[in-house]
Design goal:
Blueprint: E1 6-17, H1 23-27, E2 30-40, H2 43-48, H3 57-68, H4 76-88, E3 93-101, E4 115-121, E5 135-136, E6 139-140, E7 186-194, H5 199-212, E8 216-221, E9 224-227, E10 241-250, H6 254-267, E11 282-287, E12 293-294, E13 299-300, H7 309-318, E14 323-324, E15 328-329, H8 330-335, E16 343-348, H9 357-367, H10 427-433, H11 441-452, H12 474-477, E17 543-544, H13 570-580, E18 590-591, H14 597-602, E19 612-613, H15 614-618, H16 621-626, H17 645-753, E20 761-765, E21 782-783, E22 789-791, H18 793-798, E23 810-813, H19 817-820, H20 827-831, E24 856-859, E25 867-871
Parallel strand pairs: 23-24
Antiparallel strand pairs: 1-2, 2-3, 3-4, 5-6, 7-10, 7-11, 8-10, 9-10, 9-16, 12-13, 14-15, 16-17, 18-19, 20-25, 21-22
Helix pairs in contact: 3-4
The structure holds adenosine-5'-triphosphate and 2-amino-6-hydroxymethyl-7,8-dihydro-3H-pteridin-4-one.
Length: about 900
């Protein structure tokens, strides 16, 4: 079993990141809150007290924050996976659970949390309930009254790998006002099975995990049965399974329990490839008290449990009185299962050291002629192929070792059992009745015919006697040196049996006619249900179980010694009758009478034993009494014997022969009926198997349909998210387009309201005589803004200003030399004399110049000393 893992938790770790489906979430960081639980083997750390031997939560916090602050992801699932990957890179982390909360997720509705939880690796059990600790003024505040919900809390099932796709069970939000009610406890029955790997070890690990889960209490674990695989028709052969049943109780809901069992399956390597395929482990919830559940993921009671010996047999071993709600007593159910013959081996106390059980069983089975492979087909193969001698069983020559008697399979037995009517005789009777050398031929013949007559069900007498007490199965007498039913009484499921069959009072209650009623463990676990504790010794890896089949079981009556006269039956009856009065006819084919003195005289070597047909004896029952013949064990004068002894002998021979013929005819008839019955039983089993297969197929189809529907829902949900994203993008684009359009409109409006640009012309005004550049002789030729050559300043100075009507335009004469410092005197004043009356002059400080968009004309002094005069065209005011 793997080392126990402890859980290190870190909760409420907050960091900011840019994760989300929407573009805007990538633009601005938002908070993410992370809860971490790490499954770590702390054994070393506990002994060394060294941080190097464990996982430092400080490192964990750094790693997690780095991921949250790292590259953007669309989904919190992705974020959780990235965190898992980083933390699992630490080899000390065997498993983990990561929850990513997104408290400011962009949702229109009010909410308290959005989160995703992932579990990875080996995460046995569940996370312990953790209380929030509030620190106030540096001290831990007293606990809040309300119970915690959420992470690890009792009302939240942890996310498990196998259930990732299924919708999470919503946790009922508990408020401080909600009183904490003790949830109701339900008994449960789980069935465990598997046939891949070292299954006993895996199943023991599963039991250990279950024990570790809070709110689950294990009451009992059944012996471990090795069973032939039950297969769907046409399925390829598989290795044998190991099956066990667990009884317990839990306050978990059925789905929470399923979550846990599925988690354990996943942790123990369960993979699903094929329906009813080979598996390392399978855990089915068989029942939960009276609960009935039926939904897409869970059906309780388990819909096929009532058909399965590999579930019912181990269950019966620990709870013989159990019933499966809606189906009845498991005892009865078991007797009708088609795989009843498939129980190959059984081991008790297997949890102690499960290692080696499988190998040991393999060698036992190999010695017995089995293979681990079972035969295909829903109809189980006959399983009995017992070792014929004790020596063939490895280790069985050691008398201290417990015996393995494989379960006695019914109703069809592959090899004819060496059981005959003679086997019904007790050994001393048998010895005294056996024909001697030289005894008469007829007696030899009768004896031999008895010897070849298998015991028939019809031979079972109605009254129980010491001879037919349960457990006196002749098969067991064939191996007298091992534990037999006499040493070890079988335990009847319904009625406790006395310690030894011989001590059973004659009034013992008749055994219920249940074919498997007494499949009983010879060694029992300490358990609550009353179970037998017979004498088998406990050694080795677990205790093999002896299985004994009740004689009350009609199906096993092949093996029940009946119908052969023995000391305790016909002769005894006869003696008693003779002593007490007229002989009482018994429902037996023969009476032990007809010893004729003459024959004795003529053939002194003959044994005076004969068997006569009952009707002959009955012919004159009163005569027996009347003639006072007493049956003294040897010599009885039959009342109906006629005068001649020779005639009588011949008549006896003839009657005996006739009787033999009648018996043979009867036997042939019985064989025919038996064949018919077996054929009917086979058909019935086939029908049941077919029905189960059909049910299975329908269940599978339903499961597939639901899976498909779920997938389609998921696809639709993804598509809806995609469309939503697209819609958001389109909306964003629309808003942007609108903004641009609005801008354009505004610009257009401004444009529209703006006066058309005046056509501009430029002219150079002559510089005044006393202007700063007036004396310059080397003035370059002036060019107007329109490129026209206006000649030199001197020439231009002679030219008059055009006859523009400056008064109609707002003309400002600007002297920007005020900034350049070349001339502090505003040019305007200088120019003013030359401008028409009313022309505005003065510095313009509030408008840029020369933009062409001014209301006013700007005149500047230039480097050439000439002043461009820009004026609105009078035709375009
Ligand atoms: N009572 C139940 N116990 C366990 N699983 C159940 C039960 N009822 C329904 N299921 C569902 O059956 C699903 C498939 O189970 P699984 O693959 O183990 O089937 P199986 O063991 O191969 O077949 P079978 O159910 O016949 O034993 C599980 O995921 C679970 O959701
Ligand atoms: N013997 C045996 N056969 C099976 C088993 C099982 O547990 N034991 N489980 C099956 C599907 O659950 C199918 N067949």
């Amino acid at each position: 079993m793997s080392a126990k893992l402890d859980i290190i938790t870190l909760r409420g770790l907050t960091a900011e990141g840019i994760h989300g489906v929407f573009e805007f979430e990538h633009a601005a960081p938002q908070p993410f809150v992370i809860d971490i639980a790490l499954w770590v083997d702390t054994t070393d750390a506990i002994s060394s007290d060294d941080i190097a031997d464990t996982v430092s939560y400080a490192d964990v916090a750094n790693d997690v924050v780095a991921v949250v602050e790292g590259p953007p992801a669309h989904l919190i699932e992705t974020l959780a996976q990235r965190i898992s990957d980083v933390l699992l890179a630490n080899p000390r982390v065997e498993g983990l659970e990561v929850t990513v909360h997104k408290p400011q997720a962009p949702l229109e509705q009010e909410f308290t949390d959005v989160a995703v939880t992932v579990r990875r690796g080996n995460t046995p059990g569940t996370i312990a309930r953790i209380r929030d600790i509030t620190v106030v003024d540096g001290k831990v505040a007293p606990e809040a009254d309300e119970p915690l919900v959420g992470f690890g809390g009792p009302d939240e099932a942890p996310a498990l790998p196998s259930l990732v796709e299924s919708p999470p069970t919503p946790a009922a939000p508990l408020t401080p006002q909600t009183p904490l009610q003790e949830p109701q406890s339900h008994p449960f029955v789980l069935a465990l099975g598997g046939n891949v790997g070292d299954v006993p070890v895996t199943l023991a690990a599963a039991v250990s995990h279950l024990i570790d889960i809070p709110r689950i209490h294990i009451h009992d674990v059944s012996p471990l049965l090795r069973t032939h695989a039950v297969l769907a028709p046409g399925q390829a052969p598989q290795d044998d399974h190991w099956n066990a049943v667990i009884l317990g109780s839990t306050t978990l809901t059925p789905h929470e329990l399923l979550n846990h069992t599925a988690g354990i399956e996943a942790a123990l390597g369960r993979e699903r490839h094929e329906h009813w395929g080979p598996r390392s482990i399978d855990i089915d919830i068989i029942s939960m008290g009276d609960l009935h559940v039926s939904d897409a993921t869970l059906t309780i009671p388990h819909p096929r449990a009532h058909l399965r010996a590999f579930v019912l047999a181990p269950w019966l071993l620990i709870d013989p009185e159990a019933t499966l709600p809606g189906f009845g007593s498991i005892d009865d159910l078991l007797s009708r299962t088609a795989d009843l013959n498939g129980i190959v081996d059984a081991v008790d106390d297997w949890l102690e050291s499960p290692e080696g059980i499988q190998a040991e069983s393999d060698s036992l089975v190999a010695a017995g002629g089995h293979t681990r492979e079972s035969s295909p087909g829903a109809e189980p193969q006959p399983v009995l192929n017992e070792p014929s001698t004790l020596a063939e069983i490895p280790g069985m020559s050691d008398p201290a070792r417990p015996l393995v008697i494989p379960p006695i399979a019914v109703p069809e037995i592959a090899q004819p059992l060496a059981l005959s009517r003679l086997d019904r005789l007790d050994p001393s009777s048998k010895a005294s009745l056996q024909p001697d050398q030289g005894a008469d031929l007829l007696w030899h013949k009768v004896w031999n015919s008895w010897a070849q007559t298998p015991i028939e069900p019809e031979d079972i007498p109605q009254q129980p006697t010491a001879e037919n007490e349960p457990g006196n199965v002749t098969r067991q007498r064939e191996t007298p040196s091992v534990t037999t039913a006499q040493d070890q009484p079988p335990v009847q499921a319904h009625a406790p049996r006395p310690a030894t069959p011989s001590s059973a009072p004659p009034s013992s209650p008749p055994v219920p006619a249940s074919p498997i009623a007494a499949v009983s463990p010879a060694v029992s676990l300490p358990r609550q249900a009353p179970t037998p504790t017979p004498a088998a010794s406990a050694q080795g890896n677990g205790h093999r179980l002896d299985f004994v089949v009740s004689p009350g079981n009609p199906a096993t009556s092949h093996e029940t010694r009946q119908g052969v006269p023995s000391r305790t039956e016909a002769p005894h009856t006869e003696v008693a009758s003779a002593a007490e009065g007229p002989a009482v006819a018994q429902p037996l084919p023969f009476q032990q009478v007809l010893v004729d003195d003459a024959v004795l005289e003529e053939n002194p070597g003959h044994r005076p034993m004969r068997w006569a047909p009952l009707q002959h004896f009955d012919a004159d029952p009163s005569g027996a009494a009347g003639s006072g013949h007493a049956f003294s064990g040897r010599t009885v004068n039959h009342p109906s014997v006629p005068g001649s002894r020779a005639e009588s002998a011949v008549a006896d021979e003839a009657r005996a022969r006739a009787e033999l013929e009648r018996i043979e005819a009867q036997r042939a008839e019985e064989a025919r009926r038996r064949a018919l019955r077996q054929e009917e039983e086979r058909r019935e089993r086939e029908r049941l198997a077919q029905e189960e297969f059909e049910r299975e197929r329908r269940a599978q189809e339903q499961y597939q349909r639901e899976r498909l529907a779920r997938e389609q829902r998921e696809i639709a949900a993804r598509e809806a998210t995609r469309l939503q994203e697209e819609a958001v993008r389109a909306e964003t684009a629309r808003i942007e387009a609108e903004r641009i359009a609005a801008q354009a409109r505004a610009a257009a409006e401004r444009e529209a309201t703006r006066r058309p640009l005046p056509k501009r012309t430029a002219q150079y005004a002559p510089l005044p005589e006393d202007g700063p550049r007036a004396s310059s002789e080397n003035l370059t030729r002036g060019h107007g803004v329109d490129g026209a050559d206006y000649g030199s300043a001197a020439e231009m100075g002679e030219r008059p200003l055009p006859q523009w009507d400056f008064s109609s335009a707002k003309v400002t004469i600007v002297d920007d030399s005020s900034e350049g410092g070349r001339n502090a005197t505003p040019r305007a004043s200088l120019l003013a004399p030359d401008l028409p009356e009313g022309t505005l002059t003065g510095a313009v400080t509030d408008l840029p110049s020369a933009t062409g968009m001014l209301d006013r004309v700007t005149m500047r002094p230039t480097a050439t000393g000439m002043i461009p005069v820009v004026k609105r065209d009078t035709q375009h005011p």
